[in-house]
Amino acid sequence: MSGGAQLAVVVPTFNESANIPLVVSRLATALAGVAWEVVFVDDDSPDGTAAVVRALAAQDARVRLVQRVGRRGLAGACIEGMLATTAPYVAVMDADLQHDADLLPDMLHTLQAQALDIVVGSRHVAGGSLGAWSEDRQLASRVAARLSQLVLKADLKDPMSGFFMLRRELIDEVVRDLSGIGFKILLDIFISAKRPLRFKELPYTFGVRIAGSSKLDAMVATEYILMLLDKTLGRYVPTRFIPFAFIGGLGVFVHMGVLWALFRGLEASFVAGQTAATLVAMTFNFFLNNLFTYRDRRLRGWGLLRGWLSFTLACSVGAVANVGIATYLFHAAPSGGLWWIISATAGIIVGAVWNYAVTAVYTWSPGSATSAR
Ligand code: GDD
Ligand code: MN
């Protein structure tokens, strides 16, 4: 290969060691005559995917690897892979051969010949199909696609597709606005672009996974909702604040439940009950945030203990600020009416923002995750 690659195929991987050699040989066959390279972006898979890629790369300069440590996430991996190549055309494809590599030359020619920003491999245009999908997964896919129409301005038939090719310029245009959360990188690109994208959907049939297992689990649905939130409310508040505040709200119920049981049920003193309830609610909040809000930076092992300590410390200060501000406002009151609600709300908001800001920096600082899932 003289000169740089024309086309880079970015392949995110997590536990795909058995599929790697197949992907490379499929690409070599499908892209004969094209100056291509493949960039595997592996999130430190325990099955040794990265080592398999390195072994192949030793034989073939078209094979490249980006290994990410302490991080997880399909969309984020795709973004880093796209940034790691200098090729003018960049495709994203799964490692399990469910995407049809034979479509890549068509995608490339379409993109080269027509004034388009992006070409999408689609299961929902004439000639494409979901292949052997179960009824309920087909339904879930349709529901998610319908939901995406809320934020998507383009008539994209398969916005959930993980198989597409775009021009480098489009990456440069949107990369700073991508939310990078979850699975839906294509949707993310469409929503983040500040203009209608010129796109075309090419049909293909979604294949059967060759080896390994799917990583699409219940959390993926949560991430999908988070990404949609980020794209709608994210302009006004940090995305993670929304689940953080929601979980905080749940914590209030936990608090009241524990307090009620100890104070009313076991006749503990109010101070004892309130202290225990606060600790339980904080712990509950800590674990839920670690599971959902900071899924991608999840703390484990000793990191969990450290995280819990810093979380309770931060939130204790937040509680003092909350009560202090609410009390101050309450006494500064014109007296009577609904002023108590306003005072309490102001205290809660200040406390929540403090808790969020401090724990985002100290408890779940970027790079704090102890190990990948
Ligand atoms: N680096 C990295 N990090 N790669 C990941 C991660 C991750 O956290 N999670 C999954 N992958 C890789 C997998 O190894 C695979 O190559 C690809 O991303 C897709 O993962 P699958 O687990 O095979 O997903 P799927 O088949 O259920 O879903 C696919 O089809 C959907 C269509 O409904 C994906 O292409 C989705 O993006 C697509 O929406
Ligand atoms: Mn798959």
How would you portray this structure in words?
The chain has 373 residues and is an alpha/beta fold. The protein folds into 2 domains: 2-233, Spore Coat Polysaccharide Biosynthesis Protein SpsA, Chain A (Alpha-Beta Complex), CATH 3.90.550; 241-362. The protein is built from 12 helices and 7 strands. α11 (301-331) runs antiparallel to α12 (339-362). The longest helix is centred in the last third of the chain and has 31 residues, at 301-331. Bound molecules: guanosine-5'-diphosphate-alpha-D-mannose and manganese (II) ion.
Brief overview:
The protein has 373 residues and is an alpha/beta fold.
Question: Which fold name fills CATH's third level, the topology of the largest domain?
Answer: Spore Coat Polysaccharide Biosynthesis Protein SpsA, Chain A
- Based on CA atoms alone, the radius of gyration comes out at 25 Å
Name of the CATH homologous superfamily of the largest domain: Spore Coat Polysaccharide Biosynthesis Protein SpsA, Chain A
Mean pLDDT across every amino acid position: 87
Please identify the oligomeric state. single chain
Count of alpha/pi helices: 12
- Total beta-strand segments: 7
Please give the largest β-sheet: 7 strands, mixed
Poorly predicted sequence stretches spanning 5 or more consecutive residues: none
Structural class: alpha/beta
β-sheet strand percentage: 5-15%
Strand order of the largest sheet: 3-2-1-4-6-5-7
Topology overview:
Elements: E1 7-13, H1 20-30, E2 36-42, H2 49-59, E3 63-67, H3 74-84, E4 89-92, H4 104-113, E5 118-122, H5 135-148, E6 164-167, H6 168-174, H7 185-192, E7 199-203, H8 218-232, H9 241-265, H10 270-293, H11 301-331, H12 339-362
Parallel strand pairs: 1-2, 1-4, 2-3, 5-7
Antiparallel strand pairs: 4-6, 5-6
Helix pairs in contact: 9-10, 10-11, 11-12
The chain binds guanosine-5'-diphosphate-alpha-D-mannose and manganese (II) ion.
Guanosine-5'-diphosphate-alpha-D-mannose is lined by residues 12-14, 16, 41-43, 72-74, 77, 94-96, 98, 141, 160, 162, 183, 214-216.
